[in-house]
Automatic annotation (TrEMBL), chain A:
<feature type="transmembrane region" description="Helical">
    <location>
        <begin position="185"/>
        <end position="208"/>
    </location>
</feature>
<feature type="region of interest" description="Disordered">
    <location>
        <begin position="1"/>
        <end position="31"/>
    </location>
</feature>
<keyword id="KW-1003">Cell membrane</keyword>
<dbReference type="Pfam" id="PF00528">
    <property type="entry name" value="BPD_transp_1"/>
</dbReference>
<dbReference type="InterPro" id="IPR035906">
    <property type="entry name" value="MetI-like_sf"/>
</dbReference>
<dbReference type="GO" id="GO:0055085">
    <property type="term" value="P:transmembrane transport"/>
</dbReference>
<feature type="transmembrane region" description="Helical">
    <location>
        <begin position="294"/>
        <end position="313"/>
    </location>
</feature>
<dbReference type="InterPro" id="IPR000515">
    <property type="entry name" value="MetI-like"/>
</dbReference>
<feature type="domain" description="ABC transmembrane type-1">
    <location>
        <begin position="99"/>
        <end position="314"/>
    </location>
</feature>
Automatic annotation (TrEMBL), chain B:
<dbReference type="Pfam" id="PF01547">
    <property type="entry name" value="SBP_bac_1"/>
</dbReference>
<dbReference type="GO" id="GO:0030313">
    <property type="term" value="C:cell envelope"/>
</dbReference>
<protein>
    <submittedName>
        <fullName>Sugar ABC transporter substrate-binding protein</fullName>
    </submittedName>
</protein>
<feature type="signal peptide">
    <location>
        <begin position="1"/>
        <end position="32"/>
    </location>
</feature>
<dbReference type="InterPro" id="IPR050490">
    <property type="entry name" value="Bact_solute-bd_prot1"/>
</dbReference>
<keyword id="KW-0813">Transport</keyword>
<keyword id="KW-0732">Signal</keyword>
<comment type="similarity">
    <text>Belongs to the bacterial solute-binding protein 1 family.</text>
</comment>
<dbReference type="InterPro" id="IPR006059">
    <property type="entry name" value="SBP"/>
</dbReference>
C-alpha cells in the first residue's frame, strides 16, 4: 500500500520512533491522505477484528437476504430462483399499504414524544428543583422495563369494559373505545405505550445536552430581561438542536421496527391485528406464519431500504436545521 | 451515546455511529431469523424389530408441555425396566418457541429422535419426509391403531401411510354455570339440546340478567372450540381435500350460529371477547355457557365459579359433532437410533404407559379404556361427556400448511362476527383466498 516513495523522507525527518500520539493533528495540515499512506497496514490490523465481525454478522447476512429475496424458499430449506416475483407480488399486496400506513402512524405518534421530552428535560433541569434524580429515574424506568411486562399492564389499562383508562374517560363523560380490539384505535393505543416507554431515553439524552449549554447565556439573557419562555425558545431549543435531531432519528428507526410491543399488547389472535400490522409484523407473518421465507426476505429488504432512506432524509434536513457547526 | 452534544463534531460522529448501528441492527434482527437450512433427509426405512434388551443408546424425546413431565418420567422409568441401557434425554421447550425450534432442527436434519407433533403441523413434516411411518410397527403388532379414537388416528395418516397414533385427546363440551341458570329461571342444558334450545336459553339469560352484566353464552372467536364444531354440526366443512369449505352454504350456516348470537346480544361482542377472552368471562361468572375443551377442567379447580360448574354435550345442529384433537409421538426420519426411538414410541402407545398418563391426571389418554381417572377427576361434574363425544367426533381440520389459512381465518372472519359484513360475503372471500393458499401446497 505504501508505495509512494515521496512520503517516506518526511517520516525520517521526525526521527526513527513511531509517530507519537497526538501528532495526527499536526499532520492534518499535510493532508489526511498522506498520513494514511504513512501508517501503512497498521490501521487495518487494528480495525480488522471489528470489520470481520461486521462483515460476518452484518454484511454477509444482508447480501444473503438480498439473494433470498429473489428466491422461493421451502419450509425446510431449499431455494428456487424466481427473479423479481417476490417484489412484484409485494407491490400489489394490500398488506403493503396498510402495514406501511400503520407504521407511519405509529412513528408519527411516537415522535410527539420528542417535544414532550424536551419540555420534561428542561423542567428537570430547572435550577433548585428538588429530587431531580428521583424524577429522572422514574421517567427512565419504562425504558428498561421488559416490553412484555409493560404490555401486560397496558392491556389491563386499555381493557374496554374494565380498564382504568375508560373509567377515567367515563368520569369526564367520554365513552372510551375498545382500545386494543378496534382497528385504527389499536395502533394508536400501541403508539401511546411506545411514546411512553421512549420518553425516558429521549429525556436522558436531552438532559445531557442541556447540561452542556453554558449558564452564562441564560444569565446574560436574564440581565437583558428575557422571560423564562423566551430563554427556552431562543437559547435552549437552538443549542439543543443536535440532540433533538439525534433523538428524533433514533426514535424513527426504533419505530419503524415496531414488532414486540404490538405483538405483546394485541396478542396473536386479536381480530384487529390483521388491520393493525406493522411492517416488521408483516415480515414475521410472511416468514414464520405463512412459511414464505423468500417473500419475507423481500419484505426485509424493503424495510432496510425504507429505514435507510428515511434516515438519510433526516440527516440531510439536520444540516439545514442545525446551524452551529 | 449521550455524550455532551455541545461539541457538534462529537455529536455528529456519535450520531452517525448510532445510525449505522441502529440500521444494521435492524437488518441483522430480520436476517438472523432467516438463517439457512439444509437438504432433505432419508433414513429410518428399515423394518422395525424389537432391539436387544441390552441395547445401549442415547435418545432425545422433545415435547412442549412441562406439566406432563412427571407423567412422562414415570413412563420412561417403565420403559427402562424393559430397556435399562437406553438413556432417554427429555427436552422440554415451551409452546411459544417449540415450533420454531423443531422447524429449524428439521431444516438442518437434527430433529430429536422422538417428538410431539400436533394435527396442524403433521402433514407439513410428513409430506417433507421428516418423520418416519409406523407401518412396520403396525404390521408387527407392536401398535394397533384400533385401540385409539378412529377419527384421531386418521389425523396422523397421510396418503394412506400412518405416522403415529395419538397419545392423548381432547373434545369440546358445553360448560355451564348452574347458579346463573337458576337465577334466570332457565332450565339447564340436556344431552338432547338443539341449536334453537341454546339460542333461546342464551337470549333469555342475557336479557334477564342484563343488570348484572351477565351474558348467556360466549361467542365464537376460536375455531377449535367454537365455530369448527357448529360448521360440522351444520353439515359443512372447513377444508375438503384441496378445497376450502367456507364457500358452502352449510359451512356458512355454522358461522351464522355465532354471528346471530352476537347480534342478538346473547353473547358479548367480538371486541369484548378480545379484551377479556371467553374462558375468563365464564370463570368469573359473567357468562352462563361456554364452549370449551376437556382441558378447561384444569382452569376450574381454583375458579370462583367452580362449585356451580356442570358440563353437557354440545347442542345438535343438523347432526351431532365435536372437534377432536390430540398429540402424537413421532420418530424423526433421520434418527440415528431409530430402533431405540421406535421401541419408546411403541411403549408410550401401550396400555400400561397410557394408563400411567391418565392416572397422573393432566390429560385424557388416547388408549381406549384408560380414561376412567379423567372422568373421576372433578367430582360431581359429568366429565364423561368428553369421552362419549369421541363417537361423533370429527378431527381438527388441517392441511399441509394449516398455519397459512388459519391466519386467513383470523384475518377475515372478524368482519362477520362484528356484523360489518355478511357471513356470505366473508365466507366466499375466505374460500377464495384459502383456495389460493391450498393450491400453493402442492
Amino acid at each position: 500500500m505504501t508505495t509512494v516513495v515521496g512520503a517516506r523522507p518526511r517520516r525520517a525527518d521526525r526521527g526513527s520512533g513511531r509517530v507519537a500520539p497526538g501528532s495526527g493533528r499536526g499532520v492534518r495540515a499535510g493532508g489526511e491522505a498522506a498520513a494514511r499512506r504513512r501508517d501503512g497496514a497498521w490501521p487495518w490490523l487494528f480495525v480488522g477484528p471489528l470489520m470481520l465481525g461486521i462483515a460476518v454478522f452484518y454484511l454477509w447476512p444482508i447480501i444473503q437476504t438480498l439473494y433470498y429475496s429473489f428466491t422461493e424458499w421451502g419450509v425446510f430449506g431449499g431455494t428456487t430462483w424466481i427473479g423479481g416475483a417476490n417484489y412484484t407480488r409485494m407491490i400489489t399486496d394490500p398488506d403493503l399499504l396498510s402495514s406501511l400506513g400503520n407504521t407511519v402512524l405509529y412513528t408519527a405518534i411516537v415522535l410527539l414524544g420528542v417535544p414532550i421530552a424536551v419540555g420534561l428535560a428542561s423542567l428537570l433541569n430547572l435550577p433548585g428543583l428538588r429530587f431531580a434524580a428521583v424524577y429522572r429515574v422514574l421517567y427512565f424506568l419504562p425504558y428498561v422495563a421488559m416490553p412484555t411486562a409493560v404490555a401486560m399492564v397496558w392491556r389491563m389499562i386499555f381493557n374496554g369494559d374494565h380498564g382504568i383508562l375508560n373509567w377515567v374517560l367515563g368520569l369526564v363523560g367520554i365513552d372510551g373505545p375498545y382500545w386494543i380490539s378496534t382497528p385504527g384505535w389499536a395502533i394508536t393505543a400501541v403508539a401511546i405505550v411506545g411514546l411512553w416507554s421512549s420518553l425516558g431515553f429521549s429525556m436522558i439524552v436531552l438532559a445531557a445536552g442541556l447540561k452542556a449549554i453554558p449558564d452564562e447565556l441564560y444569565e446574560a439573557a436574564q440581565l437583558d430581561g428575557a422571560s423564562r419562555w423566551r430563554q427556552f425558545r431562543s437559547i435552549t431549543v437552538p443549542l439543543l438542536a443536535p440532540s433533538i435531531v439525534f433523538v428524533s432519528i433514533v426514535t424513527v428507526i426504533g419505530s419503524f421496527q415496531l414488532f414486540d410491543l404490538l405483538y405483546a399488547i394485541m396478542g396473536a389472535s386479536n381480530p384487529a391485528l390483521p388491520k393493525s400490522m406493522s411492517l416488521v409484523y408483516w415480515f414475521y407473518q410472511a416468514g414464520f406464519v405463512d412459511n414464505e421465507k423468500g417473500y419475507a426476505a423481500a419484505i426485509a429488504m424493503l424495510i432496510f431500504v425504507l429505514i435507510g432512506v428515511v434516515t438519510l432524509i433526516q440527516v440531510r434536513l439536520q444540516r439545514k436545521w442545525v446551524s452551529n457547526d | 451515546m449521550s455524550r455532551s452534544p455541545s461539541n457538534s463534531r462529537s455529536t455528529r460522529s456519535a450520531l452517525r455511529l448510532a445510525i449505522t448501528a441502529a440500521v444494521s441492527a435492524s437488518v441483522l434482527a430480520l436476517v438472523a431469523a432467516c438463517s439457512s437450512g439444509g437438504g432433505s433427509g432419508g433414513g429410518a426405512d428399515a423394518d422395525y424389530t424389537p432391539p436387544a434388551k441390552d441395547l445401549s443408546a442415547k435418545i432425545t424425546y422433545a415435547y412442549w408441555d412441562a406439566t406432563q413431565t412427571k407423567a412422562i418420567k414415570e413412563n420412561i422409568a417403565g420403559f427402562n425396566e424393559e430397556y435399562p441401557n437406553i438413556k432417554v434425554n427429555l427436552d422440554v421447550t415451551p409452546w411459544e418457541t417449540y415450533w420454531t425450534k423443531i422447524q429449524t432442527q428439521a431444516s438442518s436434519n437434527t430433529l430429536p429422535d422422538l417428538f410431539w407433533l400436533n394435527g396442524p403441523n403433521f402433514q407439513l413434516y410428513a409430506s417433507n419426509g421428516k418423520v418416519a411411518p409406523i407401518t412396520s410397527q403396525v404390521k408387527g403388532g407392536y401398535i394397533d391403531p384400533k385401540n385409539y379414537p378412529e377419527s384421531l388416528v386418521k389425523l396422523y395418516n397421510l396418503d394412506g401411510m400412518q405416522y403415529g397414533v395419538p397419545k392423548d385427546f381432547d373434545t369440546i363440551g358445553l360448560w355451564y354455570n348452574k347458579d346463573l341458570f337458576a337465577k334466570a329461571g332457565v332450565a339447564e342444558p340436556t344431552a338432547d339440546w338443539t341449536w334453537a334450545d341454546l339460542s333461546t336459553a342464551a337470549n333469555t339469560i342475557s336479557s334477564k340478567l342484563k343488570g348484572d352484566g351477565v351474558y348467556g353464552v360466549a361467542g365464537g372467536m376460536d375455531g377449535q372450540t367454537t365455530y369448527y364444531n357448529t360448521i360440522f354440526q351444520a353439515g359443512g366443512s372447513v377444508v375438503d381435500g384441496t378445497k376450502s369449505g367456507y364457500g358452502d352454504a352449510a359451512t356458512q350456516k355454522g358461522l351464522e350460529f355465532w354471528t346471530d348470537l352476537i347480534k342478538s346480544g346473547a353473547s358479548p361482542t367480538m371486541q369484548q371477547l378480545t379484551d377479556t377472552p371467553g374462558d375468563q368471562w365464564f370463570t368469573s361468572g359473567k357468562v352462563a355457557m361456554y364452549y370449551g375443551g376437556s382441558w378447561f377442567r384444569a382452569a376450574l379447580s381454583d375458579a370462583p365459579v367452580k362449585d356451580a360448574v356442570q358440563v353437557a354435550p354440545l347442542p345438535k345442529g343438523e347432526k351431532q359433532a365435536t372437534v377432536i384433537h390430540g398429540v402424537a409421538n413421532v420418530v424423526a426420519a433421520n434418527s440415528k437410533n431409530a430402533q431405540a426411538a421406535r421401541a419408546l414410541q411403541n411403549y408410550l402407545a401401550s396400555e400400561k404407559a397410557q394408563k400411567q398418563q391418565g392416572d397422573a391426571g393432566s390429560i385424557i389418554p388416547a388408549f381406549t379404556g384408560t380414561q376412567q381417572a379423567f372422568a373421576d377427576s372433578l367430582p360431581g361434574v359429568d366429565l364423561k361427556v368428553f369421552l362419549d363425544a369421541v363417537d361423533y367426533s370429527v378431527p381438527l381440520p388441517v392441511s399441509k400448511n394449516s398455519a397459512a389459512w388459519n391466519a386467513l381465518e383470523t384475518k377475515l372472519l372478524p368482519d362477520a362476527f362484528s356484523g360489518d359484513k355478511s357471513v356470505k360475503s366473508v365466507g366466499d372471500d375466505l374460500a377464495k383466498q384459502m383456495d389460493a393458499d391450498l393450491a400453493k401446497e402442492k
